[in-house]
């Protein structure tokens, strides 16, 4: 089993099933004892803001706020630097525990030994 799973989610409310899959896989991995790093990019960037996940709804899917809580309990959520800048999101705007970082950090994470990476 991988020691760490890095997931990059590019979809938000524009592609709800793909978005939900990314958060679900991340939370299941975290619950299984895998260290998770979930990267919010593109339209998923909005879920770094307080209250935005509660607005997301998909029938037969776990509530996004619950999934975010599970991921943060066992891992890290990161908002892409460029995606944040394009949306005028700053560190003072994001949920507690969400960091803003760029491609260099992403590449460093996915190139480490024992890491598996997924993109949604």
Please estimate the helix content: 25-40%
CATH class categorisation:
Alpha Beta
CATH homologous superfamily identity: DsrEFH-like
Tally of individual helices: 4
Number of structural units classed as domains? 1
Q: Are there runs of 5+ residues with pLDDT below 50, and where? A: none
- Radius of gyration (CA) equals 13 Å
Beta-strand proportion: 15-25%
Largest sheet: 5 strands, parallel
Q: Pairing-aware structural class of the strands and helices?
A: alpha/beta
Q: Which architecture name does CATH use? A: 3-Layer(aba) Sandwich
Order of helices and strands: EHEHEHEHE
CATH topology: Hypothetical Protein Ychn, Chain: A
InterPro entries: DsrEFH-like, Sulphur_relay_DsrE/F-like
Organism: Streptomyces jumonjinensis
Pfam family, one: DsrE
Protein name: Sulfur reduction protein DsrE
Structure description:
- This is Sulfur reduction protein DsrE.
- It comes from Streptomyces jumonjinensis.
- It holds the Pfam family DsrE.
- By secondary structure, this protein is α/β, with parallel strands linked by helices.
- The protein has a single domain (4-119), classed as Hypothetical Protein Ychn, Chain: A, CATH 3.40.1260.10.
- It has four helices and five strands, in the order βαβαβαβαβ.
- The protein has helices at residues 16-31, 64-74, 81-86, 103-110; strands at 4-9, 35-40, 75-80, 98-101, 115-119.
- It has a five-stranded parallel beta sheet with strand order 4-3-2-1-5.
- The longest helix has 16 residues, at 16-31.
């Amino acid at each position: 089993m991988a020691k760490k799973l890095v997931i990059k989610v590019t979809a938000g409310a524009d592609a709800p099933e793909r978005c939900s899959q990314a958060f679900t896989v991340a939370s299941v991995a975290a619950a299984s004892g895998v260290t998770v790093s979930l990267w919010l990019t593109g339209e998923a960037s909005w879920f770094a803001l307080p209250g935005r996940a509660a607005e997301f709804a998909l029938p037969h899917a776990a509530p996004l706020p619950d999934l975010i809580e599970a991921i943060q309990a066992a891992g890290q959520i990161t908002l892409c630097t460029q995606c944040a800048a394009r949306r005028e999101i700053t560190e003072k705007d994001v949920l507690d525990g969400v960091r803003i970082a760029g491609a260099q950090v992403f590449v460093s994470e996915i190139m480490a030994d024992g890491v598996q990476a997924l993109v949604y």
